[in-house]
Amino acid sequence: xxxxxxxxxxxxxGTLDNHLAAIAAAGYDGISLxxxxxxxxxxxxxxxxxxxxxxxxxxxxxxxxxxxxxxxxRLTVASGGQxxxxxxxxxxxxxxxxxxxxxxxxxxxQVSSLPxxxxxxRTRILFTPWVTSAYLRQxxxxxxxxxxxxxxxxxxxxLDDCAxxxxxxxxxxxxxxxRVGHAEGPQVNDPRASEWAAEVRTHFGWWDRxxxxxxxxxxxxxxxxxxxxxxxxQTLPYTNQPVANLSDIGQWMLAETRAMAARI
Length: 264
Description:
264 residues; 8-stranded parallel beta barrel; 9 helices
């Protein structure tokens, strides 16, 4: 099946130009960034630079209100993006506050020229499988960006008792964040290491199901390699030396995900 694999700029050193060149050279199909953090000059130049590097763009941004969502959509359109990923509100919001947020956001999405998805994430509204499931049932048009590593951490398990909630989330996923979490944190230090075999196998199993859902709907599987820098990535005490090379892990994740999609 067709796939588009983006690389997040989170934690990458250097300028936007450095990011674009490095991501293109590494063989990714696109770049993921927060356009609200770009200067006006960078925003204006970004569509041209994306074209020069033959890269696509998916935006991601933290939104507390519908006005924030509207601004993120506007900046993504101006930047030449293909999709909007929203970090929704806070986990402390009440059910009614969350419903008001989604009611307002979905009205914006109905008139948007771009697809908008809502990320499953710690500290956000969709921070657990069961809370997310409740909102997905309340709003049948709501679609998500599945970052299931966060759920693994919040629940402190590989979600083996959340089958119904997972089924619904997978069915409503339109973008995926590629990061392997574990019971004590949202990012294993190196997914290539044998001690994380169960976590890697479980996450790739979820991603395979998501990709097959895309294939059934004749959609392209869109995903972002999003690996956090220190202190998201573990470091050695006293020196703060990272315990793994994120660039190498990203290349491995890109290759493994493309191989998974090619088998579907």
